Amino acid sequence: MKKTLARGLMNLLPMALSLWLFWSLFVSLDGLGIFILALVGINQHFVGAGFLLVVAIVFAVGLLFSVSPIVWLYGWIERQLMRFPLFKSVYGSIRDIASLMNREGKPNTQQTVLVKQANGGYVVGFIMTDTPPQPLLDALPEGDWVPVLFQLSYQMAGVTSLVKRDDLILVDWSFEEAMRFNLTAGISQTPSSSVVKTKS
């Protein structure tokens, strides 16, 4: 009976939490949209009207940012606000995360790699970019250095280390599957995934 309950929980919990998360997001955005409708004097609406309004506003903003004057004006406002250190730290972090999520039209540079440790073991990492900041390259010894992210299990935090490209083993493994493996300490794995190691 214990195994049956555990099996039911393991199958039901992820689905329930995922549905709850998306429903909570829907309710929050719907509430925001209804608040906007109330501001303009529209008090009669159907369920989901606020959500559709928010989606329409986001879509309209996306269209506006395809116009050069709007992009220039937003960039100018952004540069002025970035003068404030606290705003710069918070906004910069959020913007970097958003840009990481939106990779449309950009080359996929998030290569999964293995890095050998002193004890002979290997750790899974990710090459996030092929162009490290110039100040770091100036401070490092001569060589082909790349920043490698080592994700910490059960949290979004990670450690970035600069590693010579010759010391890396490229892995034919998608960024999403390898990230899931790291985040869950190997508990979550795709059965059909095949990992092929190739020397760089």
Task: Write a compact overview of the structure shown.
The protein has 200 residues and is of the alpha+beta class. It has helices at residues 2-39, 49-64, 68-81, 85-101, 134-139, 175-183; strands spanning 111-116, 122-127, 145-151, 158-164, 168-171, 197-199.
Mean pLDDT: 79
The strand order across the widest sheet is 4-3-2-1-5-6
Please state the CA-atom Rg, rounded to the nearest Å. 23 Å
Encode the helix/strand succession as letters.
HHHHEEHEEEHE
- The helix count comes to 6
First-to-last CA distance: 50 Å
Strand content bin? 15-25%
Describe the protein.
With 200 residues, this protein is α+β, with helices and mostly antiparallel strands. It has 2 domains: 100 residues, no CATH class; 89 residues, no CATH class. The protein is 50% helix and 16% strand. The protein has 6 helices and 6 strands; from the N terminus they run ααααββαβββαβ. It has a 6-stranded antiparallel beta sheet. β3 and β4 form a beta hairpin. α1 packs across α2. The chain is flat. The C terminus is likely disordered.
Pick out its properties.
six-stranded antiparallel sheet, disordered C terminus, 6 strands, COV1-like, about 200 residues, 2 domains, flat, alpha+beta
Which SSEs are present, and which pair or pack?
Blueprint: H1 2-39, H2 49-64, H3 68-81, H4 85-101, E1 111-116, E2 122-127, H5 134-139, E3 145-151, E4 158-164, E5 168-171, H6 175-183, E6 197-199
Antiparallel strand pairs: 1-2, 1-5, 2-3, 3-4, 5-6
Helix pairs in contact: 1-2
